[in-house]
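Morning!

This is the sequence you dropped in the shared folder:
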Amino acid sequence: MTDMIEAGISQYSQWRLELFQRMQLWRRWLSDRDLYHTRAEMRVRQILDALRDDRLYIAFVAEFSRGKSELINALFFAGFGQRVLPSSAGRTTMCPTEILYRKNNPPSIRLLPVETRAGGTSVADYRQSARAWTEIAIDMNDPEQAARALNAVTETMRVPLQQARDLGLNLGDQPGEATTIDIPRWRHAIINLPHPLLERGLVIIDTPGLNALGAEPELTLNLLTSAHATLFVLAADTGVTRSDITVWREHIVRNSPSGRANLVALNKIDGLWDELRKPAEVEQELANQVRTCARILGIEARQIYPLSAQKALLAKIRGDRDLLRRSRIAEIEQALSSRLIPAKQEIVRDNITDSVTELREMAYAALQERLRAQQSELEQLRIADSRNALVMENTAQSLRQEQQAFQQCQQQFNVLRKTFTHLSNQLYSHLTLADMDRLAAQTRRDMSLSATTRGVRLAMRKFFQTSHDAMQRAAGDVQDIKTFMDDTCRNFTREFGLNGLHPRSFSSGKYLREIERLEASHDSMMRGLRLYLTGQVVLANQFYNSAVAGVREVFVTASRDADNWLRTLLSPLESQLQERRDLLKRRLQNSQRMRSASETSHQRATALLEKIAITKNQLSELQQIFAGINQQLHRREQDLPVLRKRVLSGVCQEPES
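The structure's back. Tokens below.
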């Protein structure tokens, strides 16, 4: 097990735990002070749900025979004392594989038969159907049985060429006399494996080579884009081949979401080791290879990490410190630790920052309103203390005027709600999934009527353009709602003295960019198809299914996010109106008691002064709580100088059993 990555994940887990605990304390604080209304509860739940997501995804991408599976073994599974993933010359991993751990499930490997491709159903849909998968139990006490079970990801079967085409496999150029071909036996694999890093949320995505990437659109359109870090593996003996550069450009650079860490490993440097040459000569040759690879990939040389995965695995199993140092595995471990964790933290931070700020603003506005009412009531008590009947009547009259003003405010709010509901429904109408499903069905009909590549592309282009236009209209609705709420809040502030009304913005840009990314990826994968010549209709349908699923997910996400945003826009107004309604009711009751209650005005004033002091203290507490949460939220990963120094110096602990 790599100490560096384990330390990084442990630190991330601690960061999440501390933030989670602070939010729970804040929720209790709000509840104890009667500030935990429905909107606040919804926001707190969203924050806590986001913090419960502990998954960290690392995707390993390479052409075959680059040593990718061996690198996974060396980075994560050396503690087992043997290879976990099969690794040998030639092709090994033949299907996309996810390695994770769910404690409620026994150790196993679940395999989805390649024949499921013929039905046009996506892998994501099959995840909900246990009967579709073949499951093989893994005995963690029997290394040989575990190795046989995991070897299933390498299995192939020989089928007629036409059957392979019917499954939508990208066969490439086949010899004219060929009538059969070896294809992967499985479409997808999920390995459930007890392991300290996997138990803490690490998910490893192991991908096959270029042909499989092109043949399973869901992998590049959806699965790889969910990774927080991607490790692209090259081989030192081959450098950057034409197929390598295609994988890099088409499947990593083009589909790389913002904030993701992309690393490049130059594997098999032990092939350059030569006892008949001086170490400096070997290092110079390796440096030249790194510079050449960097130039071809269009990145800086420092972004490439030379290493020997096979020697690193051997060194960790044997406890050979010198060999571990020569393998240079520690450098890629440090890079993964220093870039993976911040990438995940940034995603979590972006998901909850607005909600945390909104919680603070709602609580602050409610406390300010409470303080204003208490101070006004105290002033009325002081006036009442003069026992001036005329003043008492004026005070009652003032309260009645405030009550009338509140009624006017409530009436305007009711009018606002009607307009807001109309604008919201208009926004929802442009994000409805029913329209998206009808568009998808119409696109499929248009594709079925055209047997040519051009016809299919035109149908899909229309699908993407219509989807993009709908999202553009939704973006216009969002801007209209934001403008309406800005104007309304300014009016309520000016006319009724409400505070802290700053409607949160909502950006539709990321949804538009995701639709554009899906269209570019789909167009790239369709570029090599010639339907009327090769009959690759099944593959085109798979591209279609993955593209539609991706765009549909964009609309699902946009609709959910928009709904959450809309729910927050009225909550500050509702909260302050409720607070003002309750306080006005209490003040009217107090005004009546001023005439008949037995307690003296001095006692009432003393009680109010205590309440005012409590409210001011609560405002101070709120600022301190928010500052603490904000500081924890934006705390960056700290360096671990002692640990990193120990790892980089080649110190290797004994493998764990």
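Headline: The longest strand covers residues 186-192.

More detail when I'm at my desk.
O.
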